[in-house]
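Sample entry follows:

:::
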Amino acid sequence: AAPDGSFVLLHGCAHNPTGIDPTPEQWEVIADVIQEKNHIPFFDVAYQ
């Protein structure tokens, strides 16, 4: 587990064919955990 306040790298959409796209419900859970742990999200959307 990452220490509180860590940077967290997230991908806006999956790298085909190795990744998945989280559902809206999964993004809500991800957001809740980031907020609870005071993480700093960093989104990689280079090719969007």
